[in-house]
Amino acid sequence: MSSMGYRLAPSTAEPVCGRKFQGNVNVKFCVPIENPSLSNDREYDCAWNDDEADQFGIEEVGSVMSKGNYAVAKDEINVVAHVPFSTRETEMILDRYVEGYETYHHTLTGATRQGVTAKKRFLADLTEEVNAMGVAKRTEKQIDQKIRDEMKVLKRYSNALKAEREKTGGGRPLLPRLSAAQMKAFEALEMKPRVSGIPAGTEVGMKTDDRPEASDVAVKAMKRRRQPELDNSPSSSSEQHPPERCGLKKRAVSPNDVLMMEVENLELRREALAKKNRLLDLQIMYWTRKINHQL
Length: 295
Known about the structure:
- Helices cover 48% and strands 10% of the residues.
- By secondary structure, it is α+β, with helices and mostly antiparallel strands.
- The relative contact order is 0.07.
């Protein structure tokens, strides 16, 4: 788009701070202007170049003819100011994100077509709710980016909290400030791996490669359990064996111990699935009541 002037309709908003507009400005006609200061329509003429158009978010709709000494009719050009999210919008987005955590991250369905469709439906419904508040017109992409930004804030807070807990000597902890809505979301998602980053934490819907093998867990647990016995056993004394060979002998883990750990792991997964089912039932009840209330 070459440098040209946009003739604003008299009923539209006036320019603020030179060429920057606030709100929605509908530009009905554009006229190529070599020098805007010499134009007869000084009241409504403004010149824009490519850099200014990108800076102020000008979106072109319809074809533009930039050559010739004649007026070019435009379907519509929207100059939309990027309004920051309000506190009420942020609170609603975080609340809905906590409720739809499994849907947003495909926790139950995985990265399948069904999971992607459910996430898109979730973002569409959330965007509709946010726009109903009347603060500004939001898009699904903006809502998705807002969720990602808020999760980065919660992640930084979780990392800072871990660092403060590992320190010694007391003193006042230096933690990033969170709003009431952010703190509420952090408390609800504190044990989620996406926020707290628990090293060995398992979450329903995680891939098998991401979970620690039960055999590895059993071997480590049995090593810790058998270590005192090895230290106190006669075979570990320096009279019968040289000191350099004491640490070479390790008792093998029996298959029964491995099976026991497998059973315990399956029991924990079953309990987690039961809790997820109860959570989904509560969500179904909530949305059913909300729909009935709206009807």
